[in-house]
Design the sequence.
């Protein structure tokens, strides 16, 4: 059985102090429970401080992006090795805010995925369609394109260090989550694509997260779907009570027959 995974994508939020307090509240609320994998992804400048706040706890540290080069003259960029050095286990790549606002391409995201995996990071690869694409019945086509391009050069072995996050762009930050049925259908489609690309055993093990206005109000049903293995939580990850209650929902879902 796949372990549920709840990750907080803090995006460009918090201060050093509020980030530390948020992380400490999550650690306290979890109380050492490891039944659900939990990670927090603060902004780069706070990685060390948040890393200290979660030290010795089951909470893992993740970053929100990286560059594909190891080091050198790349002003403003951060390498995968630096993230490992800062204590990260995870890195989010291909988030729709970077795809759409910063024009990141599938090819660029794939390069960064390879570099991050080579450095020993686990990659949370985000995919998802826009509202226009969904309304034009192009959801599966877009997911197919993004998953296929995202996994170029990824094998049945290396995909084991990846997580895919299905994040419908129209649901992100809008308060309009996908329904459990919509999300389940997209997750099942993604898993089938990964089975075709990397083999059925790797696809069966792959953790696929849902992201997009996932709040305690809607998460319970989402995390109970057979192909939804947890959530990549934005806004609700900034509120410890909300985040912890989503973790508790994931735990309950794992206890279901
Ligand atoms: P919201 O939960 O704020 O909609 O953000 C989702 C997201 O983009 C997580 O990566």
Sequence:
């Amino acid at each position: 059985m796949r372990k549920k995974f709840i990750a907080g994508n803090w995006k460009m939020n918090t201060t050093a102090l509020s980030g530390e307090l948020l992380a400490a509240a999550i650690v306290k609320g979890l109380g050492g429970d490891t039944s659900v994998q939990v990670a927090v992804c603060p902004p780069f400048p706070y990685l060390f401080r948040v890393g200290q706040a979660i030290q010795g706890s089951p909470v893992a540290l993740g970053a929100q992006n990286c560059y594909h080069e190891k080091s050198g003259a790349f002003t403003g960029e951060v390498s995968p090795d630096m993230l490992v050095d800062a204590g990260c286990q995870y890195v989010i790549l291909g988030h729709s805010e970077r795809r759409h606002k910063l024009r990141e391409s599938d090819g660029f995201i794939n390069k960064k995925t390879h570099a991050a995996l080579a450095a020993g990071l686990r990659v949370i690869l985000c995919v998802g369609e826009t509202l226009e694409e969904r309304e034009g019945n192009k959801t599966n086509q877009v997911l197919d394109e993004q998953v296929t391009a995202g996994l170029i050069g990824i094998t049945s072995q290396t995909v084991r260090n990846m997580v895919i996050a299905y994040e419908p762009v129209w649901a992100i930050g809008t308060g309009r989550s996908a329904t459990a049925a919509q999300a389940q259908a997209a997750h099942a489609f993604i898993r089938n694509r990964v089975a075709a690309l990397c083999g059925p055993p790797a696809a069966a093990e792959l953790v696929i997260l849902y992201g997009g206005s996932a709040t305690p109000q809607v998460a319970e049903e989402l995390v109970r779907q057979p192909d939804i293995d947890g959530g990549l939580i934005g806004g609700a990850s900034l509120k410890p009570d909300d985040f912890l209650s989503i973790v508790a929902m994931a735990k309950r879902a794992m206890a279901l027959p």
